[in-house]
Design goal:
The complex is a heterodimer of chains A (111) and B (205). With 111 residues, chain A is mainly alpha-helical. Chain A is built from 4 helices and 3 strands; from the N terminus they run αβααββα. Chain A is globular and about 55 Å long. Helix content of chain B is 41%, strand content 23%. The N and C termini of chain B lie far apart (48 Å). Chain B has 205 residues and is of the alpha+beta class. In chain B, the strands form 3 sheets. A 3-stranded antiparallel β-sheet of chain B has the order 1-3-2, with helices on one face. In chain B, strands 4-9-5 form a 3-stranded antiparallel β-sheet. In chain B, strands 6-7-8 form a 3-stranded antiparallel β-sheet, with no helix packed on it. The chains are: A mainly alpha (111), B alpha+beta (205). At the A-B interface, helix 2 and helix 3 of A face helix 2 and helix 3 of B.
Chain lengths: 111, 205
């Protein structure tokens, strides 16, 4: 596959954008989704959002969906490739989480 | 309505600070033409940012502006002249993705405006994005320096090239000083962005 993405190469912002597009969504909706899911910790800048959307479109991980007339907001949805990437990333994160918990858990309880 | 004229050494950071200072005093930008800014008094507070977009094509900028308007961000277009050699309405850019391409002149800076909702107004919220962006600005300011310097020192520029002899009013040597002065200003901006890139890089673990 030409656009194969290396494991671990997905930034947090990109990962959240992919998750926000399991249901069709537009730019503003994506931003709100990320803000809400991270309790306001991640507020995406417009430049980052624009760059990430274009990058995902280029790699065919998301696609634009047909807009009906009168709707100037562009909407996007995740592709099968995009979902594949999310699954791989989720497995990777699970591994990281499991290892971290195994090693750090006792320490954290003392905090 | 008040009118202000301003020229900025660093047209990005200094301009952001100045616009936000005006906003704090209760002014909102109405329009900008060249170095002239018109403001109106406004009860609500707005927050500003300035984005360097000279490396982007017109089509790309339009696409970007569409997204900005979806995000309730207003935009103003401000033209500046750096790092380009223009012939009529076309010019040769020496930086960015479209470098070495002849592209139509037009947009240079976007002034972004949104309602102040208490959150900081950042364009790029990923360090990688910021590094790419700062590099483009650094190159835009640093690449013209050798050309300008050679042009100033060896090209012997004088206003008489404009068709009339102005040397009684402005001595030719002043043009040389001006050229060198502009070189220094550009170099300072380039150095500033080099440091910003370094800072971003060292923040990545």
């Amino acid at each position: 596959m030409k656009n194969k993405i290396k494991p671990g190469a997905v930034t947090e912002t990109t990962f959240y954008i992919l998750l926000s597009l399991y249901n069709k969504n537009h730019g503003y909706g994506i931003m709100q989704f990320v803000e809400k899911e991270t309790n306001g910790r991640v507020i995406m800048g417009p430049g980052t959002l624009y760059g990430a959307i274009n990058n995902l479109l280029e790699k065919k991980l998301i696609e634009p969906i047909n807009q009906y007339e009168g709707n100037r907001r562009k909407e996007y949805i995740i592709t099968e490739e995009g979902k594949g990437l999310v699954h791989n990333e989720l497995k990777r994160l699970e591994d990281v989480y499991r290892t971290a918990i195994k090693i750090v858990k006792g320490d954290m309880d003392n905090d | 309505m008040i009118k202000k004229r301003r020229i900025f050494i660093d047209p990005i950071n200094n301009q952001i600070k100045w616009l936000n200072g005006m906003a704090k005093k209760g002014y909102r930008l109405v329009d900008v033409k060249g170095f002239t800014y018109n403001f109106e008094e406004c009860k609500e507070e707005y927050i500003y940012n300035v984005e360097f977009v000279a490396h982007k094509s017109k089509k790309e900028i339009d696409k970007y502006m569409n997204l900005l308007s979806e995000l309730n961000i207003n935009t103003f277009i401000k033209k500046i002249n750096i790092g380009k050699r223009s012939i009529g309405n076309y010019r040769w850019r020496t930086y960015g993705k479209n470098s070495m391409k002849i592209v139509p002149t037009g947009l240079e800076l976007l002034i972004l405006e949104k309602r102040n909702d208490g959150n900081p107004f950042e364009l790029f919220t990923e360090a990688d994005d910021r590094i790419v962006y700062y590099r483009i600005i650094r190159n835009a300011f640093s690449l013209p320096v050798p050309f300008l310097l050679i042009g100033t020192l060896y090209g012997n520029p004088r206003l008489s090239l404009l068709g009339k002899d102005y040397s009684n009013f402005i001595p030719n040597i002043m043009i040389n000083y001006l050229g060198i002065f502009i070189c220094i200003l550009f170099a300072l901006v380039a150095i500033k962005y080099t440091f910003l890139i370094r800072r971003e890089k060292s923040s990545i673990l």
